[in-house]
Write a structure and sequence with these properties.
- This protein has three domains: 151 residues, no CATH class; 259 residues, Type I PLP-dependent aspartate aminotransferase-like (Major domain) (Aspartate Aminotransferase, domain 2, 3-Layer(aba) Sandwich); 133 residues, Aspartate Aminotransferase, domain 1, CATH 3.90.1150.170.
- Helices cover 45% and strands 10% of the residues.
- The strands form three sheets. It has a seven-stranded mixed beta sheet, with helices on both faces. It has a four-stranded antiparallel beta sheet with strand order 10-11-13-12. A two-stranded antiparallel ribbon has the order 4-5.
- The chain is globular and about 65 Å long.
Length: 566
């Protein structure tokens, strides 16, 4: 486990969250009601909050301690029918449910007719909902690229939640508007850009940030498209991404009207990096057919392999052909925080990009969703998106210089910057860098243990933040030996015969389901590019500061216990 200093920081951070939760969540809401007493306020629903917030903070406290999955499972798995039945077990005959309806049903009359008791009943129902939710803060949750929340970031989220305001103008959210500028100043500085000579905004997720990149690139390179749409392109517009790139690019070219057939997937080479030679060839092919190349989407930490493209190579090509270069660093972007030479080598050339996506809710541990979009082109967001809604945006208003809302294609924006600000303020850049470096160290140890264990096999050369591997039960090990396939990692990028790929896939699927149903782990499987076999992937998302060798051993032991007879 991590050193005691880490536990101290975690405790301090949890204290922040508990303090914010108890003070803001209960006392502030009660006091702001125009009631003579707390008892009057309870009838309006405030009695829901104290027991619920107390329960939520207790659950959150559990995620910051070293509780095994035997004591606290990742999920109390139920199939949909069983889940509804279990939730209804006590509710169907509850005194506040006279018509015997399902716990999840919505009715004509609400629980408020029962006054304070109705409030407490809703609180207990919401606690029941939590019982059956996936515990994404569990050390054995690897299913998606998010996880255990940083307590300091949770404290910021609580402030944003209870202030309940909108981040479009300074007058509606003065402190939050200034925080957003500070967060953007600090994140763009990681790229070596100087604020405010660049631009950016908090976005509602990495997919929308990637779409924003395509959207503003189109306007920057072909300004007439703002009024004339894609018909104003000189010819069919074409974008390029690696075959390892996130699927959001495919969706977003459709959303902006470019058409999916005009997103060209570039071959990957080596450890999954975009092939510069193929990119040049595809650009030439587009030009020869009369198309208009304009956008290249690179990846800093792909979802499956964890690939980092060679950014300097791609930047040289983009400069030569006058193309917009975007880097999707939603997953691997936090490498920017690290001072380690090997991390700096990973992100070399990222600063040459026209735009960058970063998702602090993934590796760094802010609550969902927290996305930073950055572009080196000052004022371009406003030029692209401005609609000059007079009832909102007016330069004569106080603090109008901080009004970033008109630079977004959205109207309402949640005050997400406070989550990053709170975490960064508490941890400092060095603390966040330590989190990134610790994850890389632990995954390096996992890869080492996989190489040394004859029940496991690396599926590809690991990147710092992703380890893809196969579990090999007895019968599959025999099949490998018969086929002459080395399982010790001495052969890279093995393409399995179909019958072995099918067997490996069956094992991965069945073993995942076993661990899920036992509540021992949520572990994703997926095929690698060019492979048919389903492989497991381990990533360390969120504030897993106490995650280490003991958790590695627990995961591998459970895979062996439930997988060897498959």
């Amino acid at each position: 486990m991590a050193a005691s200093k880490t536990h101290t920081l975690t405790t301090l951070g949890l204290g922040l969250a508990i303090g914010a939760g108890s003070t803001l969540g209960v006392q502030y809401l009660v006091n702001r009601e125009n009631n003579d007493s707390y008892e009057d306020g309870r009838a309006k629903g405030l009695a829901i909050l104290p027991p619920l917030i107390g329960d939520l903070l207790s659950r959150f406290s559990d995620t910051t301690s070293s509780i095994s999955t035997a004591e606290k499972p990742v999920v109390l798995y139920r199939d949909p029918v069983s889940l509804e039945a279990d939730m209804d077990k006590d509710w169907v005959h509850h005194e506040h449910n006279p018509d015997g309806s399902s716990a999840l049903s919505l009715n004509e009359s609400g629980l408020d007719v029962y006054g304070q008791e109705g409030s407490l009943t809703l609180a207990s129902l919401l606690q029941l909902v939590c019982d059956y939710c996936v515990d994404t803060g569990n050390d054995m949750f690897f299913n998606q690229l998010y996880g255990k929340m940083d307590p300091a970031a949770v404290a910021g989220e609580l402030v944003s939640l209870f202030m309940n305001t909108n981040q479009f103008t300074y007058e509606s959210s003065p402190v939050f508007a200034m925080m957003e500028s500070e967060v953007l100043k600090s994140t763009t500085s990681l790229l070596g850009w100087k604020w405010p000579d660049c631009d950016g905004q908090m976005a509602a997720g990495g997919s929308l940030a990637n779409m924003t990149a395509i959207h503003i690139a189109r306007h920057h390179m072909f300004p007439k498209t703002r009024e004339g749409g894609n018909a104003a392109f000189p010819s069919t517009a074409v974008c390029y991404v690696s075959e390892e790139a996130h699927y959001s690019f495919l969706k977003m070219v459709g959303v902006v009207g470019l058409g999916r057939s005009n997103l060209i997937k570039i071959k990957s080479v080596g450890k999954g990096q975009m092939c510069a030679k193929d990119l040049v060839a595809q650009i030439a092919k587009t030009k020869a057919s009369g198309g208009t190349p304009f956008f290249v989407g690179c990846t800093a930490g792909s979802t499956v392999k964890g690939t980092f493209d060679k950014f300097d190579e791609i930047a040289d090509i983009c400069k030569k052909f006058n193309l917009w270069m975007h880097v999707d660093g939603a997953w691997g972007g936090p490498a920017l925080f690290s001072e380690r030479p090997e991390m700096k080598e990973l992100i070399k050339g990222v600063s040459r990009a026209d735009s960058v996506t970063l998702n602090p809710h993934k590796m760094l541990g802010t609550p969902l969703t927290t996305t930073v979009f950055m572009t080196r082109h000052k004022g371009l967001l406003l030029k692209t998106n401005s609609a000059n809604a007079g009832y909102l945006f007016d330069k004569r208003k106080n603090g109008a210089a901080f009004d970033k809302g008109d630079g977004s294609f959205m109207c309402g924006r949640k005050c997400d910057a406070v989550k990053v600000w709170s975490m960064w303020k508490f941890r400092g850049r060095k603390g966040l860098a330590a989190r990134v470096d610790r994850n890389a160290d632990n995954l390096r140890l996992l890869a080492k243990k996989i190489r040394q264990h004859d029940h496991f096999m690396l599926a590809c050369d690991p990147w710092p933040f992703n380890v893809n591997f196969l579990y090999l039960p007895k019968r599959v090990r025999a099949m490998m030996e018969e086929a002459g396939i080395a399982t010790d990692g001495s052969e890279a990028n093995i393409v399995f015969p179909d019958h072995i790929a099918e067997a490996l896939s069956t094992v991965a699927i069945d073993l995942k389901l076993r661990l899920q149903e036992k509540g021992l782990a949520l572990l994703p499987y997926q095929p690698l590019v060019g492979q048919k076999a389903q492989v497991f992937r381990v990533i360390l998302a969120g504030a897993k500061d106490d995650w280490g060798e003991a958790e590695i051993d627990e995961l591998m032991d459970n895979l062996v216990e439930y997988g060897d007879e498959l």
